Amino acid sequence: MEKILEVCETLVHSEEYPIFYHDKSREIWITGYKEGKKFDLFIKKLYDGTFKLIYEIPEERKVALFLDEDKLINRLKTIFEKEVVEDK
User: Fold this and answer.
1) CA-CA distances (angstroms) from residue 85 to 6, 18, 34, 36, 76?
2) Whole-angstrom Cα distance, residue 45 to residue 50?
3) Dihedrals φ, ψ of 42, to 5°?
4) Which end of the chain is less congested by CB atoms within 10 angstroms, N or C?
5) Average pLDDT for residues 24-36, to the nearest whole number?
6) Around Cβ 60, how many Cβ atoms within 10 Å?
7) CA distances from 40 to 20, 44, 48, 82 (A)
8) Are 23 and 10 in contact (CB under 8 A)?
9) Start-to-end C-alpha separation, the chain
10) What confidence score (pLDDT) does residue 16 get?
11) Torsions phi, psi of 5, nearest 5?
């Protein structure tokens, strides 16, 4: 979880989204406004070693299950770096 937390901090640093991490329950929460819409991001490491990601905006909720950290990190990069690509 530490690797994922470091990646989250790196990706959201420029926007200064608050990150909440609860070590005992192995959960990360990030919330803020992206493109004028409120979003919530929830990541939890499940007991079987997989990762659950929930990304929610007012219009929709996306839930995904990842088998390893690298695939989850790639999805986080897609979510937070999308702004950079669209701005170019």
Assistant:
1) 22, 23, 14, 17, 14
2) 6
3) -130, 130
4) C
5) 91
6) 7
7) 11, 13, 24, 16
8) no
9) 32
10) 85
11) -60, -40
Q: Write the secondary structure of the chain as one string of H (helix), E (strand) and C (coil).
A: CHHHHHHHHHHHCCCCCCEEEECCCCEEEEEEEECCEEEEEEEEECCCCCEEEEEEECCEEEEEEECCHHHHHHHHHHHHHHHHHHHC
Q: How far, in Å, CA of 37 to CA of 45, rounded? A: 26
Full-model pTM: 0.83
Query: For the segment 15-27, what is each residue's pLDDT rounded down to a tens digit?
Result: 889 999 998 989 9
